[in-house]
Amino acid sequence: MRRPSMRTIPLAISLALSFGVALAQTTASGGTSGTGSSATGGQSAPAAQPGTGARNAETRKDDKLARGDRKFIQEAAEAGMYEVEAAKIAASKATDPAVKSYAGMLVDQHSAANNELVQLANAKKVELPAAPPRSKRRDIEKLGKLGGKELDQRFVREVGIKDHQRDIRKFEKAGKDVKDPELKAWIEKTLPHLREHLAAAQKLPQSGGDASAMGNRAGGSDLGSTPRGSATGTNTGNKTGS
């Protein structure tokens, strides 16, 4: 009885080793399960786990940008996309020619600023959002359902005034806080245009009689007192940027 059992043990070990080698070879070749093992270069991992793909891994490896700088770039991109989309609606549907003209100017200038920010983000390996946040997408949908004077007024007050007041506050703070010199230069270049946009919106009849006073209270500075915003926004920016 002992001889058969002694022969059986080596045979079992041999079968186990053969199975292990076959399994290892199957895993190394990627198998047929398509689970994205290490042998596949992890190519399926980004799809299975959004936000942890190769681009983010590269960002972590070469991360030379402060966390606050990175966050500002992403938030500025979201705001820029929202304002372009809202302005496109107003440029198409506004009834007042002055509002149409104002909206067209926002589309052109915010699109240019957005393109510059994309280039900067790519250079700094910052992954930008693909769309505005959900709350802003809802605002865009609501604006698109409006028409006539109601659309004109909503666009001027919400996008032209309130959103630009919010942008200016963020840009002013970021101009003092960000560490990256190229990002700081982009902020300093863009901020005068935001002030110009606010000043132009406050001049439109749809802004409401107390728009300037509201701008002063909401902005915490003299953002509403820019009656002579030029096409370049330089003089207005110098007055406001204390």
Automatic annotation (TrEMBL):
Signal peptide start-end: 1-24
Gene3D superfamilies: 1.20.1260.10
Keywords from the named record: Signal
Coiled coil: none
Biased composition regions of type Low complexity, renumbered to the chain: 28-54
Comp. bias regions, Polar residues: 223-242
One Pfam family in the UniProt entry: DUF4142
UniProt key word Signal: yes
Composition-biased stretches (Basic and acidic residues): 57-69
Signal listed as a keyword: yes
TM segment ranges: none
Listed InterPro entries: DUF4142 (IPR025419), Ferritin-like (IPR012347)
Region called Disordered, residue ranges: 28-69, 197-242
Stretches assigned to the DUF4142 domain: 69-204
Protein name: DUF4142 domain-containing protein
